[in-house]
């Protein structure tokens, strides 16, 4: 091995090394959580490049999130002196978007097509219902959204769906209407990105053959969660699909596929994922290399035994082993709370302690089964002044004010985008009434055109008002042409009146802040396609090949150019505008909240979105019957097994410390529930667990009392159960009795901007950790972090 190879391979165990250095043939790595699958995949790319077996342009890698794609790009560019820009690394949706932008004409889309996220899609469907008077009780829009998504995942256009009954016939009809509407507006939903790019490949031989020749190595992470269409797409690119020209003797399929996955972590069956793709892959690609990785590098054996024992209750498994070379590590801590509120308060206490002992906040994750659970936790963190960041849920780009701003930006790119048109036309209010818009929609329907095109056919005051709005957009488009992305965003925020609107709103301060954050997001935005373009000039030739003198690059065959977007039979050179790239990014962003990236904050997310990630400390909350396993999945065995896999994913995110908690009562969807603790507790090895709930907690079901009265009881409990926190501490923090610097005393009256006047009841901690329990007559008892909360003494 040449020295650079050793450098790449030295951080691998022998099984991993064998996987990384496999010959260029199809392979499947089937291995449990934390066994280094993702590391192997990344290193394999680096090794292939390093040894000159492939050029950056010949690599296609599919990751589960955009965040993972970025990490991979960063890792690769730090490992190797190559320009990684030519590589196609991203999520399925991201890659399909890139593909469709390059081939928009063949795809029958406007170049500036916009992407509908889930919310947009639903409002688009609802708009359709209004227009055609569709009964939304018989065909609930959400259900229709699932139906459409399901069809697309199976590769089915409306005319391909098998119609067996009247209900399906009607649904297919709505599906068709929806398709027509999207096409007219130049928008695509997530499912469409995938299906459309699949169809372009299927129906255009030169394009398909081009990409088949180009992508020598196709690597897919989290393969267990691919759906039918995604698998078909991979097959097509690898050159063995049913529509490939495999029967043409001159065609030589060159794509070499490495699939990496874990059947026990398949958690998207409800959305069409097919674990069976693994078996199909092995059969259809005649996979010779099946590699197992059996060493877990992430966690100690208490955590790992818990995961292994739990998952052993599933019957449908391919069977794998997982061991760890690390010792037992800390026990898995189990906590029973009296209420969801108390559960959150307890977590806050633990987090404080962890942070005091030196743990970084971003290394602490709180996982929950359903998004609705996050609110109570967020409130507790907020009141405690602990920075946190929520993944998923209402993501940055899904907030109303951000969507309003994006609607304007999208209209700059594509005036035919009716969803954006309707969002922006009367917001901020400009006196354009519902009736006018209905009239406009009638005109548009009658002439089969977009709303903006229909304006000229609308007379009177309504026509004039809407016309003025559109003229404003046109002016803005002209003014901003050639501007830097962040300047465009800034200009649009001003010109649209959004900033003024929210500034005038008493509750609008947060929204203004978010809008300003959008400018920052635009400022720091780098699309994956442009990754590294501006980075310190790596020596590359014009085709993006590395020009370093490594043994690898000397072996490269530079006579075969691999351009970034070489498109046969199409005029090339048309690249996406930065604004268009930014808008795609906003729609595709899967939970990575760019606005707060880098901040040291506690990480909150659903178990689903934690897949592939790892943290030093993980809290899994609300482990109760009905919640986890979820009530919708408890009744059938498949559903229950998927819940158990979810629990397996959750447990295996933890590196050092794992907390499991459940609560006797919980407010959910406006009701108090009394859920028994989850059956999953019975499936964990008792020896790995440590129950940290005090026998007599001394606090009542209304959590306020907990935070009010029991800091004592709690500390007592900690002493009693002897939890070893010192593991994380560089030096254990002694409990200081220094004089408080904040000058507050119990009994003092204070004023808080949000909660008004209150009385200090208890004070705790010093310095940054100082906090006060304050009784606000209007808002109840709160614990406030004094380093954050702004309190003024009231004389
Ligand atoms: P998941 O199933 O959760 O996606 P995975 O199999 O992809 O997990 P990785 O995320 O690649 O596992 O690796 C888990 C952790 O172990 C990472 O922190 C990684 O850096 C580390 N790791 C992987 N291989 C090794 C190794 N040979 N030596 C030391 N650490 C390793
Ligand atoms: Mg992984």
From TrEMBL:
Catalytic function, reaction form: ATP + H2O = ADP + phosphate + H(+); Couples ATP hydrolysis with the unwinding of duplex DNA by translocating in the 3'-5' direction
Domain UvrD-like helicase ATP-binding: 10-300
Disordered: annotated segments: 550-574
Entry keyword set: ATP-binding, DNA-binding, Helicase, Hydrolase, Isomerase, Nucleotide-binding
Family of this protein: Belongs to the helicase family. UvrD subfamily.
InterPro entries reported in the protein's UniProt record: DExx_box_DNA_helicase_dom_sf (IPR013986), DNA_helicase_UvrD-like_C (IPR014017), DNA_helicase_UvrD/REP (IPR000212), P-loop_NTPase (IPR027417), UvrD-like_ATP-bd (IPR014016)
Name this polypeptide is given: DNA 3'-5' helicase
GO cellular component: cytosol; DNA helicase complex
One MF annotation (Gene Ontology) recorded for this entry: DNA binding
Record EC number: 5.6.2.4
PANTHER family given in the database record: ATP-DEPENDENT DNA HELICASE SRS2, UVRD / RECB / PCRA DNA HELICASE FAMILY MEMBER
Organism: Albidiferax ferrireducens (strain ATCC BAA-621 / DSM 15236 / T118)
One of the GO BP terms on file: recombinational repair
Residues that, per the record, bind ATP: 31-38
Domain of life: Bacteria
UvrD-like helicase C-terminal domain span: 301-612
Residues of the signal peptide: none
């Amino acid at each position: 091995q040449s020295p650079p190879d050793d450098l790449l391979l030295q951080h691998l165990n022998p099984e991993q090394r064998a996987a990384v250095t496999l010959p260029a043939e199809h392979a499947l790595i089937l291995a449990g959580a934390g066994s280094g699958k993702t590391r192997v995949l990344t290193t394999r790319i680096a090794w292939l490049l390093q040894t000159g077996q492939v050029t950056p342009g010949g690599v296609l890698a599919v990751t589960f999130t955009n965040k993972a794609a970025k990490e991979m790009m960063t890792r690769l560019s730090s490992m190797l002196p190559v320009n990684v820009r030519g590589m196609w690394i991203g999520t399925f949706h991201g890659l399909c978007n890139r593909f469709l932008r390059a081939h928009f004409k063949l795809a029958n889309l406007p170049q500036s097509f916009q992407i509908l996220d889930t919310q947009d899609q639903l409002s688009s469907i609802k708009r359709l219902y209004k227009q055609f008077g569709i009964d939304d009780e018989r065909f609930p829009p959400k259900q229709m959204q699932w139906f459409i998504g399901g069809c697309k995942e199976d590769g089915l256009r409306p005319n391909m769906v098998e119609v067996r009954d009247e209900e399906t016939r009607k649904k297919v009809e709505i599906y068709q209407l929806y398709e027509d509407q999207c096409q007219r507006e130049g928008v695509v939903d997530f499912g469409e990105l995938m299906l459309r790019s699949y169809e372009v490949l299927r129906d255009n031989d030169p394009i398909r053959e081009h990409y088949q020749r180009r992508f020598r190595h196709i690597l897919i992470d989290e393969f267990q969660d691919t759906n039918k269409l995604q698998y078909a797409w991979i097959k097509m690119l690898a050159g063995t699909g049913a529509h490939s020209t495999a029967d043409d003797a001159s065609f030589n399929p060159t794509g070499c596929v490495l699939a990496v996955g874990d059947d026990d972590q398949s958690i998207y069956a409800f959305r069409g994922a097919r674990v069976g793709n693994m078996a199909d892959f092995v059969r259809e690609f005649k996979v010779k290399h099946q590699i197992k990785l059996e060493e877990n590098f992430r966690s100690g054996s208490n955590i790992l035994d818990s995961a292994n024992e739990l998952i052993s209750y599933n019957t449908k498994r391919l069977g794998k082993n997982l061991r760890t070379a690390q010792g037992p590590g800390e026990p898995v801590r189990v906590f029973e709370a009296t209420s969801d509120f108390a559960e959150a308060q307890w977590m806050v206490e633990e987090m404080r302690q962890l942070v005091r002992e030196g743990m970084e906040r971003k290394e602490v994750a709180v996982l929950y089964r359903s998004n609705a659970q996050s609110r109570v936790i967020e409130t507790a963190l907020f009141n405690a002044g602990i920075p946190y960041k929520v993944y998923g849920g209402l993501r940055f780009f899904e907030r109303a004010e951000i969507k309003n701003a994006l609607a304007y930006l999208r209209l700059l790119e594509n005036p035919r985008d009716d969803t954006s048109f309707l969002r922006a036309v009367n917001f901020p209010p400009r006196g354009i009434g519902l009736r006018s818009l209905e009239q406009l929609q009638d005109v548009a329907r009658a002439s089969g055109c977009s709303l903006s095109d229909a304006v000229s056919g609308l007379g009177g005051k309504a026509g004039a008002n809407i016309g003025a709005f559109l003229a404003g957009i046109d002016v803005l488009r002209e003014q901003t042409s050639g501007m830097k992305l962040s300047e465009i965003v800034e200009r649009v925020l001003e010109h649209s009146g959004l900033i003024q609107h929210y500034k005038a709103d008493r509750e609008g301060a947060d929204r203004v802040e978010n809008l300003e954050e959008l400018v920052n997001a635009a400022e720091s935005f780098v699309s994956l396609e442009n990754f590294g373009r501006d980075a310190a000039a790596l020596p590359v030739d014009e085709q993006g090949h590395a020009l370093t003198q490594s043994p690898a690059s000397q072996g490269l065959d530079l006579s075969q150019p691999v351009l970034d977007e070489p498109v046969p039979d199409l005029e090339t050179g048309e690249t996406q505008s930065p604004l268009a790239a930014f808008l795609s990014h906003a729609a595709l962003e899967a939970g990575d909240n760019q606005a707060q990236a880098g901040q040291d904050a506690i990480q909150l997310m659903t178990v689903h979105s934690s897949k592939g990630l790892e943290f030093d400390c993980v809290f899994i909350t609300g482990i109760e019957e009905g919640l986890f396993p979820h009530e919708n999945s408890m009744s059938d065995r498949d559903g229950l097994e998927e819940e158990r896999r979810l629990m397996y994913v959750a447990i295996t995110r933890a590196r050092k410390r794992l907390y499991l908690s459940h609560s006797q009562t919980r407010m959910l969807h406006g009701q108090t529930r009394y859920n028994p603790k989850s059956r999953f507790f019975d499936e964990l090895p008792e020896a790995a667990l440590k129950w940290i709930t005090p026998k007599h907690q001394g606090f009542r079901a209304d959590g306020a009392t907990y935070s009010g009265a029991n800091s004592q009881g709690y500390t007592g409990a900690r002493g009693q159960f002897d939890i070893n926190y010192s593991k994380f501490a560089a030096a254990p923090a002694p409990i200081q009795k220094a004089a408080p610097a904040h000058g507050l005393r119990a009994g003092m009256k204070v004023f808080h901007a949000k909660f008004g006047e209150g009385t200090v009841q208890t004070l705790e901690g010093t310095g940054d950790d100082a906090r006060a329990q304050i009784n606000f007559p209007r808002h109840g008892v709160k614990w406030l972090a004094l380093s954050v909360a702004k309190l003024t003494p009231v004389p």
